[in-house]
Write a structure and sequence with these properties.
The protein is an alpha/beta fold. The chain is built from 7 helices and 8 strands; from the N terminus they run E-H-E-H-E-E-H-E-E-H-E-H-E-H-H. The structure holds D-xylitol-5-phosphate and zinc ion (ZN).
Amino acid sequence: MAKVAPSILAADFSRLGEDIRDVCGRGIDYLHIDIMDGMFVPNISFGPDVMKSLNGIASVPYDVHLMINAPDRYIEKFITDNTEFITVHYEACDDLAYTLKHIRSAGAKAGVSIKPGTAPEVLDDHLKDIDLILVMSVEPGFGGQKFMDSCLDKIAYYKMKREELGLGYVIEVDGGVGSANAHLVRDAGVDIIVAGSAVFKAADRTAEVEGIRG
Ligand code: DX5
Ligand code: ZN
């Protein structure tokens, strides 16, 4: 069984509060908050004020995915009572060790994400300082893309390293996952599955969440 983190990027923004209230009542574990700056990725999503407007509505913790350059500038802005994880991109950090410490000292758990073209070994020197590893299974920037199975070996790699080193980070996957293919990432050893379109566009959201969880 995996945990399920619907990405609110796929919600109906014209009725965001209602959509979030609805999805929080369907047995989900986190809300995945996709923040895009139009620089690190070629898309702009929304900022911390939109996220904070959900604080009185959301009944699960936030899993914040920062797809932004120089993320140290914005970490504090995304820390709220609802924030559990802040995840930055390896490719967007000049000094990852510093940024990981920054996230933890600001009061959140520290996550790092790698893009599909990034080798998993780049995090080897940081593993003991990481609370969550987010393996991208699409190029970051847009919801609704096709799942790339290059993530599977990376998930297995981080699972193996966790056992070998006796560490406690969780492994998450993001992009193109739904109930039809979630078994692939579960079998590889993932702990948390992000799903945007699959959950928000489902005819039966509860069944979709259960199908993803396994
Ligand atoms: C992509 C985002 C994902 C995306 C997932 O840049 O990080 O979280 O919203 O959406 P789906 O599940 O539709 O691929
Ligand atoms: Zn994401």
